[in-house]
Structure prediction request, 598 residues.
Amino acid sequence: MKSKVPLLNIITRYILKRKGKQIRPLFVFLCAEVCGGTSESSFTGASLIELLHTATLVHDDVVDESFHRRGLFSVNALWKNKIAVLAGDYLLSKGLLIAIENNEFNLLRIVSEATREMSEGELMQLEKARKLDVSEAVYFEIIRKKTASLIASCCAIGASSAGADQQMVKQMHTCGQAIGIAFQIKDDLMDFDMNSQTGKPKGLDIKEKKMTLPLIYMLGELDYLQRRKIIHLIKYNHNDQEKVKKLVEQVKISGGIDYAEKKMKEYQQQAINILSGFPESEAKKSLENLIRFTIERKR
Amino acid sequence: MKSKVPLLNIITRYILKRKGKQIRPLFVFLCAEVCGGTSESSFTGASLIELLHTATLVHDDVVDESFHRRGLFSVNALWKNKIAVLAGDYLLSKGLLIAIENNEFNLLRIVSEATREMSEGELMQLEKARKLDVSEAVYFEIIRKKTASLIASCCAIGASSAGADQQMVKQMHTCGQAIGIAFQIKDDLMDFDMNSQTGKPKGLDIKEKKMTLPLIYMLGELDYLQRRKIIHLIKYNHNDQEKVKKLVEQVKISGGIDYAEKKMKEYQQQAINILSGFPESEAKKSLENLIRFTIERKR
Prediction:
């Protein structure tokens, strides 16, 4: 990542300090092992994916005007939007360049489809956030594009980098997609968890007018007038702490949390089922554990 | 460009309404003709380049907080930064996807190098803008990366898409780089031109603390104390209309404009000289005219 531009080196060093769980490269490596073994390509693929994901986070913070990320300041908080947008572009093109220089055109094909779907998914979510008319079907389409497409790419890239055939790559892609959907439902659910410091549920998604699965489920159970009332609350009173707290309670009582948990486990099971077709190995056990982690994690 | 996300379709339709000179695709097509003839690849390359360039403009407007572009509102003015950053990412990935789907890996290789250089160049410029310590050598490195690398790519892509050999592709790349440098010096010079409506020079670059060639030349002619005084003015009084106007006058008197014009013409001549090695044709004449246009244009 070393560049001739000193400012860029400072930024990339800073980003490295706050690197996250790096769960996406893990999926690349474990899927490669399950499909025959990691290769030089697996490393290229893992780098490509992590750079792309990091670029997205840097842009997300600009987009959301977030000044914190993983306990540290965000890039835009320290260097302003201007530099953060450019740094994100740089990370993205650097990732693509690594793949191109290594003639990894299969990996590129897998990943570029995901990149397009990710921005489509984000934009769909923003569009729907204005009207709040998100059906369950639309919800699943958004999270499939926004979150699951990249994790699907990780698994497909892992398989492809191990020399797997087209059919196996496709299976792994489907497996990763199911993992990604479960991962996002988990994210949604955590927003209803108690905050360990304040003892209150966070409800951040509601404040950002994001329609999550537990909420969508509840809305489906209500009659027209009740639904209108809640949509009105989300639209115009999403900053009223008390009202948001009440809404969170209401979602819990409606069975929305249970429903989302059920769905999450269905997708988890779907991923595990696909894996069961692969021979037993240490890597497969680790991959199963990693899948379990995605739905049991606390952050 | 049609997408399943309605908001994206509205944005791309809007962007199409304010399409610019589309000078970059022109370079692709004319260079292809000069090197043996346009092919299907030339169209892919031209689309890739124009999408990438448009993505950059959309991000630039976010970065510069510009609310106007080509006489219409900018994307971020109409839809906010959030959507503009995502729309830019979408355009970029869509461009790459078109190339990948068409197995145009040579074109991708040429263009991805330019993408990286473009963000490096922009970041270098921002970094230097804080200290204002831009030597002529640094200035040329910045504009080579920021502007000339993409035009160099256009010419190289044109040649490559016509089936030219490595050496010819490289020649065209060098030719495009010279054109791009002349193009940027012209941009710098236009900032010292009279505004047709107000009759005053624009001096926008000074207001944005951008060091342009005429200014850098003048600073080189001054002694230490005079130079400090002017740097102080740019740093702290760049919003003082009267002072900026005086500075513009001073640059003119110093011979900075003449010097920049001389340099611009040298680069133009360099490009024409490279072309002289290619056989005469209608396309070559058009390309020469287009090069002339880059330094004679009024906007």
